[in-house]
Write a structure and sequence with these properties.
Radius of gyration: 13 Å
Shape: globular
Number of helices: 4
Number of domains: 1
CATH architecture: 2-Layer Sandwich
Largest sheet: 5 strands, mixed
CATH superfamily: STAS domain
Helix content: 40-55%
Structural class: alpha/beta
Distance between the termini: 29 Å
Oligomer: single chain
Strand order of the largest sheet: 1-2-3-4-5
Order of helices and strands: EEHEHEHEH
Strand content: 25-35%
Length: about 120
């Protein structure tokens, strides 16, 4: 996992590699929450382009960060998801609360347009 801050958009970019399962979820939650507090970012953008598998723990990670971002006045962006991960996002209802985009730039444009 890699974390980047986009200062222009007050967005923490989270690049996840491999499986987003129970084992990875704990570390992702802790790191993202710590970086949100440290940086003052409001939005969280998850780069899912290199996620090969995601289970309900991954949904929990996204839901939890959605609650944090919402309390900060921000949004969650998910971009680059594979077809399989996209199906899981759709079935879970995440598409109703997060911005789903092809790229981080597209997601940030949608967030800015809906402010």
């Amino acid at each position: 996992m890699e974390l980047f801050l986009s200062g222009k958009h007050h967005t923490l970019i989270v690049k996840i590699y491999g499986e987003l399962d129970h084992h990875a979820a704990v570390g992702i939650k802790e790191n993202v929450d710590r970086e949100l507090a440290r940086t003052g970012a409001r939005n969280v953008a998850f780069d899912m382009s290199r996620v090969s598998f995601m289970d309900s723990s991954g949904i929990g990670v996204i839901m939890g960060r959605y609650k944090v971002a919402k309390s900060l006045g921000g949004r969650v962006i998910i971009y680059g998801a594979s077809e399989d991960v996209g199906r899981i996002l759709a079935m879970s209802g995440i598409k109703d609360i997060a911005v789903i985009a092809d790229s981080v730039e597209d997601g940030m444009r949608e967030v800015e347009a809906n402010v």
